[in-house]
Automatic annotation (TrEMBL), chain A:
<feature type="domain" description="Thiazole synthase ThiG">
    <location>
        <begin position="16"/>
        <end position="270"/>
    </location>
</feature>
<comment type="similarity">
    <text>Belongs to the ThiG family.</text>
</comment>
<feature type="binding site">
    <location>
        <begin position="227"/>
        <end position="228"/>
    </location>
    <ligand>
        <name>1-deoxy-D-xylulose 5-phosphate</name>
    </ligand>
</feature>
<feature type="binding site">
    <location>
        <position position="178"/>
    </location>
    <ligand>
        <name>1-deoxy-D-xylulose 5-phosphate</name>
    </ligand>
</feature>
<comment type="pathway">
    <text>Cofactor biosynthesis; thiamine diphosphate biosynthesis.</text>
</comment>
<keyword id="KW-0808">Transferase</keyword>
<protein>
    <recommendedName>
        <fullName>Thiazole synthase</fullName>
        <ecNumber>2.8.1.10</ecNumber>
    </recommendedName>
</protein>
<feature type="active site" description="Schiff-base intermediate with DXP">
    <location>
        <position position="117"/>
    </location>
</feature>
<keyword id="KW-0704">Schiff base</keyword>
<dbReference type="Pfam" id="PF05690">
    <property type="entry name" value="ThiG"/>
</dbReference>
<comment type="subunit">
    <text>Homotetramer. Forms heterodimers with either ThiH or ThiS.</text>
</comment>
<dbReference type="InterPro" id="IPR013785">
    <property type="entry name" value="Aldolase_TIM"/>
</dbReference>
<keyword id="KW-0963">Cytoplasm</keyword>
<feature type="binding site">
    <location>
        <begin position="205"/>
        <end position="206"/>
    </location>
    <ligand>
        <name>1-deoxy-D-xylulose 5-phosphate</name>
    </ligand>
</feature>
<keyword id="KW-0784">Thiamine biosynthesis</keyword>
<dbReference type="InterPro" id="IPR008867">
    <property type="entry name" value="ThiG"/>
</dbReference>
<dbReference type="InterPro" id="IPR033983">
    <property type="entry name" value="Thiazole_synthase_ThiG"/>
</dbReference>
Length: 278, 351
């Protein structure tokens, strides 16, 4: 754990592919009641990076002519651009390597960024990553100049292959997308953190409540990416703020070097020499 | 608004002394506005660029009059407009079945049903027997559901045809089809712009939200009322249209592409209704369609007045639910100068 920057402060940015960002909360942009509420939630969250799904919102240009400039989703994308945050396009919903690569290429053209959150979905019910397709797509995209943020499991070997494929960030799931179950496998996530002490690691997916996000940060994760927990909250703006605070709290706690848990009580005031009353 | 005081548009000194109103756009917004202005004694001309009224995105509407269900995800103003509109439709057009609506979820999505219930009112919890008592064909398929007894539904195409006939026959509304509302030469004291997304040429913050739907025909199953099926990604509703027809809707995609229906969307809609009842797997696909809903960034409808034009727009998913209530407000704005901040503030949610 030495490689984690414990001497840093909250003002210390997290760095992805050489880009420093201040906020350790990455927010998805799907499923909000309205773009206006999405905008307010992003502002309340202080997030510097938002992910945007291309697959669902793109129109005929995507289907007919992958190289052409997609126009159909323009107004929504313009709204996102107007927020002044950094866009991390994603390949949500893609099930094959080819589909993910094509979507990533379209995203690069549309948002003028080499960043891509790579999702290759392998299973419909759990939306579990197809790690074989993921590694292959990561290799293709990295060679093509992309800076890939792979959505993966906490599997160490897959993680190593992703790094070998060129990924300089890993985004293991906490739990299946949209499940809100939190960190399903804390042991696995801790191992991954210990295995890649210097690599930016982001818990992506499955986070339900702010305490889940705080736990990930206390574990030494560099950032948390979430969407549904904010978008589907009764008050997304308030929930966005709650997550921002939890992530700050978890990060600060990590830097503050928490005490170790112990089996016995340890009095916080001295007992020796205390006056005996009555 | 450019003026900070209520301003009444002056009716000219004509023989009939009636305000001459031109409505541009014959969808649900334009038709209900025509009705509201005609009821106030205006001489109304409605101009529709297509061959008939109700052929724009109103054509593809679900026709659910469900303010309580919408309350789950929409802001309170939508429910408020919805209650007023529900009463309007009941007294204005025939065939508005007062059967309520039903919200169901497959067992594994019951958390979504509980969340739905927390965010609205006007319902009762049903168990499997309660669901079967309302919809016998769903017997044994669901263990829990929400029933909203005060809600209703209508068939949008029939309702708008009936309203059009009423406007022309009873209110003397002049209907001009296949014409551009800004090129007709008749004089008008005021223009009500109800063009939906086409008004983006002047309302720059309008955007399109695509919706896809389909109509199925089956004699193996009958439903009396709209059923919403909750799902984390693909919420679907099914509205009985009578004679074995069911309208299934609707996707909601952030793009403004009219008309292209994707296989994926159909797969999702059909998958959801198949989960509701396998009989839908054997149903005939009668129609598939798509259009684009006009929406402002907060997905709330607006009246905007600029000079002698009032814009009625941004009805998003709530055309039938909001249009009559907005139309009444538009007429009161024009005739009485009444202000309606809840639907008139141009930027009450700054993007």
């Amino acid at each position: 754990m030495d490689a984690i920057n414990r001497t840093g402060t909250l003002a210390d940015p997290v760095e992805f592919y050489g880009t420093k960002v201040g906020s350790r909360l990455l927010l998805g942009t799907a499923q909000y009641p309205s773009p206006a509420i999405l905008g307010e939630a992003i502002r309340a969250s202080s997030a510097d990076i938002v992910t945007v799904s291309l697959r669902r919102e793109s129109g005929a240009a995507k289907a007919g002519q992958p190289g052409g400039a997609p126009l159909a989703g323009q107004s929504f994308w313009q709204l996102i651009r107007d927020l002044g945050v950094k866009v991390l396009p994603n390949t949500a919903g893609c099930k094959t390597v080819k589909e993910a690569v094509t979507t990533a290429q379209m995203a690069r053209e549309l948002f003028d960024t080499p960043w891509v959150k790579l999702e290759v979905i392998g299973e419909d019910d759990t939306l579990q990553p197809d790690v074989f397709g993921l590694v292959e797509a990561a290799r293709i995209l990295s060679r093509d100049g992309f800076q890939v943020f792979p959505y993966t499991t906490e599997d160490l070997v897959v993680a190593e292959k992703l790094v070998a494929a060129g990924c300089e960030v890993l985004m293991p799931w906490g739990a299946p997308i949209g499940s809100g179950r939190g960190l399903n496998n804390p042991y696995g996530l801790r191992s991954l953190r210990a295995h890649f002490p210097g690599l930016p690691l982001v818990v992506d997916a499955g986070v339900g409540v702010p305490s889940h996000a705080a736990a990930a940060m206390e574990m030494g994760y560099d950032a948390v990416l979430l969407n549904t927990a904010v978008a589907k909250a009764g008050d997304p703006v308030r929930m966005a703020r709650a997550f921002a605070r939890a992530i700050e709290a978890g990060r600060e706690a990590l830097i503050a070097d928490p005490m170790e848990a112990r089996d016995m009580a340890a009095p916080s005031t001295p007992v020796m020499g205390r006056a005996v009353l009555g | 608004m450019t003026s900070n005081h209520a301003e009444t548009i002056q009716a000219p000194n004509r023989a009939a002394n009636a305000m001459r109103v031109r409505i541009v756009g014959g969808g649900v917004a334009g038709l209900t506005c025509a009705h509201a202005f005609a009821q106030r004694g205006a001489q109304v001309t409605l101009v529709e660029r297509k061959a008939a009224t109700g052929q724009g995105c109103s054509w593809y509407a679900g026709g659910m009059l469900a303010p309580w269900c919408e309350r789950e995800s929409a802001e309170p103003i939508i429910a408020e407009l919805g209650f007023e509109s529900l009463a309007y439709w009941r007294e204005t057009v025939p065939d508005v079945p007062n059967e309520g609506s039903l919200v169901l979820a497959p067992a594994r999505d019951l958390p979504d049903l509980r969340r739905f219930s927390r965010r609205t009112e006007g319902y009762e919890w049903l168990d499997g027997a309660g669901i079967a008592a309302l919809e016998p064909d769903l017997d044994g398929r669901f263990e829990q559901g929400l029933f909203f007894p005060t809600e209703a539904h209508l068939e949008p195409r029939k309702a708008l045809a009936a309203l059009t006939a009423k406007l022309v026959g009873e209110h003397g509304v002049i209907l001009r089809t296949e014409e551009d509302g800004f090129e007709v030469s008749d004089a008008a004291d005021i223009v009500i712009d109800c063009r939906g997304l086409a008004a983006r040429d002047t309302l720059s913050d309008l955007r399109g939200v695509k919706g896809e739907m389909l109509v199925l025909y089956s004699t193996e199953i009958s439903l009396k009322r709209p059923v919403r099926m909750l799902h984390p990604r693909i919420p679907v509703y099914i509205v009985p249209r009578g004679d074995g027809h069911f309208m299934i809707g609707a996707t909601s995609l952030e793009n403004d592409e009219r008309g292209r229906v994707t296989g994926r969307s159909m797969l999702e809609l059909l998958g959801a209704v198949y989960a509701l009842h396998p009989a839908f797997g054997e149903a005939e696909i009668v129609e598939i369609g798509a259009d684009v809903r006009p929406a402002f960034p907060d997905n709330l409808p607006r009246l905007r007045r600029r000079g002698d034009t009032i814009y009625v727009n941004g009805l998003y998913r709530h055309g039938f639910l909001a249009a009559p209530a907005l139309a009444r407000r538009a007429a009161e704005l024009a005739f009485d100068g009444t202000q309606f901040p809840e639907v008139m503030d141009e930027d009450h949610r700054q993007w």
